[in-house]
Amino acid sequence: GTTRHYKFDIKLQNVTRLCQTKSIVTVNGQIPGPRIIAREGDRLVIKVVNHVQHNITIHWHGVRQLRSGWADGPAYITQCPIQTGQVYVYNFTLTGQRGTLFWHAHISWLRATLYGPLVILPKRHASYPFPQPEKEVPIIFGEWWKVDTEKMINQAMSTGSAPNLSDAFTINGLPGPLHNCSAKDTFKLKVKPGKTYLLRLINAALNDELFFSIANHTLTVVEADAVYVKPFKTHTVLITPGQTTNVLLRTKSKSPNATFIMAARPYATGPATFDNTTATGLLEYENPSVSKAKNKNKKLQLLKPVLPQFNDTSFATKFSNKIRSLNSAKFPAKVPKTVDRRFFFTVGLGIIQCSQNQTCPNNTMVAASINNVSFVQPSTALLQAHFFNKSKGVYTTDFPANPLVKFNYTGNPPNNIMMNTGTKVVVLPFNASVELVLQDTSIIGAESHPLHLHGFNFFVLAQGFGNFDPKKDPAKFNLVDPAERNTIGVPSGGWVAIRFLADNPGVWFMHCHLEVHTSWGLKMAWVVQDGKGPKQKLPPPPSDLPKC
Ligand code: C2O
Q1: 233: which DSSP letter?
Q2: 151-193 confidence digits (pLDDT tens)
Q3: Which of 270, 191, 201 has its CA nearest to residue 236?
Q4: Where's it found, cell-wise (predicted)?
């Protein structure tokens, strides 16, 4: 592979959206940030220079980081933040992966403006398992707030209140014409008739799963989370924060007298209100026939897509079930066939006691947890503590493998819903095969949670509604062609079962990719021990690794 160098200057930039100008934190002054394009097997060397008054880290979402955990990026998990004026070089190899991923800030809510595509092309001369597209187009969804998101989340966390909803969703940084002053802030995709385009869809939004559709066009899903899938056709794609989906768009054989709207809007299941706005962009054909002189007075028709209802869980479930590994001879699904460690984790929202530095009404606030443990961010990085055998006072290894109190998870909440807090991890021996059932709870209300695992891809064996039944449900597990991915929506009022092989030594974060839930504590970490072999150990950290 080649070594590719990038420089990320973290700096402020004035940006105008929705009739207002504000100063935002950017990479190189751009929003979305720069596209990283590499090939499978390449090494990426990305020098991040922090020129702003915020602590920064960058995460390469979905990159496996085989024995390069020091470059993974979640703040206080694998590294201390890059402070003002400091530099850190992320250095890692893209091993055994190709497809669409993305990068984003992994500290506080800076992902709101620090995000961009990370495209891994197949090795030179290797082809796609589908027709070579005319053109490849990254389409990255984001969210825009008129307020300063860092001030907003800091205030929300210190008062126990919920942060503001965003003012718009964006397509490649642009909200589109349904919003005030945004007609010129509209993403336009220009296409030729009779061609195939590869759209690399990425959901970098902070707090919403999104439906995406293009009027009068069918999309063929060919890849999810940088893994090829069995192609299937759909009019709408559901994509959670943290997920990426490649779709083929086949354009009409002749340029129609129309412009087609593409739209992204939330899939929302929770009891809380959600940002019920729609981001739109345009699909425009080159040389539509009306531009010819005799049709001068005819206007192009503007066609709108029909999206599912905001709470269409039935669509969400069907869509998620359709995603199956391609599992061809060339791209086999390597599902672990045996299990060394079994875990059952409840995920959901609950109530927590306020700490001294907070001022909350009734002294309680909403929090989120896994197995009733609301994760407390340590003040130094877990990976350093683990590597240098200094875990004492940083983390404990007693993260529960099962809920401490069993209850009817999807039924009425039990009386005592108070959560615990702690910086607890699960320790796994090298190469352990892990089976994990993630069970949604409805203590405050059933809600879909997009769970993301760092350092691994996992296989999605099955999902269902109600409480997972350990006697009956394992019979439904798909061990042949399950989806292989890094982020999965735990169904609202249901469960999902996954498996992964712990073949990557280090400390790996797992969390809900809805930023508000991460802030509330819906996160934990796995510590994977070194193996015996030379290629089974985490090397020491680079000399420029930031200190806390
Ligand atoms: Cu895309 Cu831990 O995140």
Answers
A1: E
A2: 999 999 988 889 999 999 999 999 999 999 999 999 999 999 9
A3: 201
A4: Secreted, Extracellular space, Apoplast
Within its chain, how far is the Cα of 222 from the centroid? 18
> Which of these ranges, 99-103, 170-174, 440-444, 450-454, has the smallest mean pLDDT?
440-444
Q: Which amino acid is present at 323?
A: I
Is any ligand 1 atom within 6 A of the Cβ of residue 509?
yes
Structure tokens at 312: 């269409």
User: Burial level of 36, CB count in 10 A (0-12/13-18/19+)?
Assistant: buried
The pLDDT value given to residue 289: 64
CB 451 within 8 A of CB 510: yes
Separation between Cα atoms, residue 5 and residue 325, nearest integer Å:
32
Please determine, for the modelled complex, whether the ipTM score is greater than 0.90: yes
Task: Report whether 538 contacts 530 (CB < 8 A).
Answer: yes
Provide the 3-class DSSP secondary structure of residue 535. Answer: helix
Number of helical H runs and strand E runs in the chain: 4, 33
Report how far Cα 17 is from the mean position of its chain's Cα atoms.
24
Q: How far is CA 372 from CA 396, 434, 447, in A?
A: 15, 20, 16
Q: Are 113 and 14 in contact (CB under 8 A)?
A: no
Tell how far the Cα of 135 is from the centroid of ligand 1, in angstroms.
Answer: 28
| CATH classification code of 341-536 | 2.60.40.420
Q: What is the CA radius of gyration of the chain?
A: 23
Q: Which residues contact 79 (CB under 8 A, 6 or more apart)?
A: 57, 70, 72, 73, 88, 381, 383, 384, 545, 546
What is the assigned CATH class of domain 130-325? Answer: mainly beta
**Is the CB–ligand 1 distance for residue 104 below 6 Å?**
yes
Quick one: pLDDT at residue 291? 53
Say if residues 222 and 237 touch (Cβ distance below 8 Å). Answer: no
Q: Which residue has the tokens 């999605």?
A: 460
* Residue 175 Cβ < 6 Å to ligand 1: no
Is the peptide bond prior to 413 cis by the omega test (within 30 degrees of 0)? Answer: no
**386 pocket-lining for ligand 1 (C-beta < 6 Å):** no
Superfamily, domain 1-128: Cupredoxins -  blue copper proteins (2.60.40.420)
CA dihedral 150, 56, 202, 451 (to 10 degrees): -80
The residue whose CA is least distant from atom 3 of ligand 1 is 61
CA 458 to ligand 1 center in whole angstroms? 15
Q: How far apart, in whole angstroms, are the C-alpha atoms of residue 529 and residue 513?
A: 25
Same fold, 1-128 and 341-536: yes
In the chain, what are the domain boundaries? 1-128, 130-325, 341-536
Distance 129 CA to ligand 1 centre (A): 28
Q: Do 324 and 229 meet the contact criterion of CB atoms below 8 Å apart?
A: yes
Provide the sign of the torsion angle of the four alpha carbons 313, 317, 322, 324, taken in this order. Answer: positive
